[in-house]
Amino acid sequence: MVLSTLPIDERDGKIRALPEAILGRRAFIDMAPVLMNKKRTYAIRVSRSKRHTITFEHLSGKFHMPMAAASKSLAVSKSTLKLRCRELGILVWPYRKLSSLEKLIDKVVELAHPGFQFIVCNIRQEIEAIKMNPSLKIKNETECLRRAMYDLHYKKRRDDSRVAN
């Protein structure tokens, strides 16, 4: 028996009571997608309502985490989190940008030069600005410093590997 031939009540979408002879095994199999679709619709409705309760303040507290960990801590799926981010104007999750700046601070502090305190202060201000507006790009001076620090550490690793060989 095909699903379209089953007498479905228009008001609630349930199948009206039929004798067991008419509702055989085939009818139950054909009805499975309808039942799954109802569960799916309910799940979509629940996720939409949860999604709209997430505010920018909730998200900004999770920027230091990867997106998967943030979605788990907010008890929503990663896709739902992405949708809400797009609705709030966050096009890219800022975790990698922020972690890169934090690593840059660690590398600058590792040099322990007294003149670098000003640079660390500027980077911390930039981190706070990115937390307020994740769409901001990293300043040119910071990018140049990041490249210079990378080159410095690369040369140090290269020289260490040459000495070891």
UniProtKB/TrEMBL annotation:
Q: Which UniProt keywords apply?
A: Coiled coil, DNA-binding, Nucleus, Transcription, Transcription regulation
Q: Where is the RWP-RK domain?
A: 39-126
* Origin superkingdom: Eukaryota
Query: What Pfam family is a match, any one?
Result: RWP-RK
For molecular function, the Gene Ontology terms on record are: DNA binding; DNA-binding transcription factor activity
User: InterPro entries of this UniProt entry?
Assistant: RKD-like, RWP-RK_dom
Q: Quick check: keyword Coiled coil in the entry?
A: yes
What does the function comment of this entry state?
Putative transcription factor.
Tell me the protein's name.
Plant regulator RWP-RK
Q: Which organism is it from?
A: Rhynchospora pubera
Organism lineage reads as: Eukaryota, Viridiplantae, Streptophyta, Embryophyta, Tracheophyta
